[in-house]
Design goal:
Strands 1-7-6-2-5-3-4 form a 7-stranded mixed sheet. The longest helix has 25 residues, at 201-225. The protein has a single domain (5-244), classed as 3-Layer(aba) Sandwich (Glycerol-3-phosphate (1)-acyltransferase). By secondary structure, the protein is of the alpha/beta class. Helix 1 packs antiparallel against helix 9 and helix 4 crosses helix 5 (143-151). It has 9 helices and 7 strands; from the N terminus they run αββαβαβαβαβαβααα.
Length: 245
Amino acid sequence: MSTSPEVVASDSPTVRSPLWFSLQVVIQTFFLFWLGYRATGYKRLEQEQGALILANHQSFLDPLVVGLPFRRPISFLARDSLFCIPLIGWLLKNTHVMPINQQAASTTSLRDTIRRLHAGWLVGIFPEGTRSPTGDLGELKPGFAAIIRRAKLPVYPVGISGAYQALPMGGWFLKPARVRVVFGEPLTVEILEQYASRDQEAALVELVRSRIAACCEAADVWRTTGTPPPLVVIQDSVDRLGAAR
């Protein structure tokens, strides 16, 4: 995994770029209408400095549906090959995305990611490494474990439901499917310190996977029954859109 620091935006970890702010307003309005988009639990992260967000990966929509509720940006990691595509590369460079080379591990990329976290950024990773071909949560690639051990910051599991139905792998058209996103309780630094050694990596990966799976289950229930997860205050996306403006 390697990054190219020169193409990573050097703006504030708490201030959205003009491009992302503009896209956020437009996309949130469309998703609210077309996908019935709702998210909950994100308010936990608004006062944090740096934190790692780990989510399941159902669709190309995932970075959008995870990032839409926030007034601060999330710096996602994405394949470096995407940055070579006209327009898409420009969009990624200007919406806080960091490029990674999935074929080559690099201590430089690890340092870049941790530096960004310590600078106060929310950093988003999809630890499955690729979109799910079925929509179900797959096995997690363990590369994120090194980031957790060295960053020593909270980790937030996230479950996405409905993005696969809206735009699955191989799909070309956005279908009107209900999308729900659940941000779970954080894995605190104190919890993560119990998995600090490399020989506990498998246990750490399984812990993270179980937390993401629980969020996915809550999001699935919310999407299919219309009943939001208990003990969480839901702030409607319409309210958030008004506040963003």
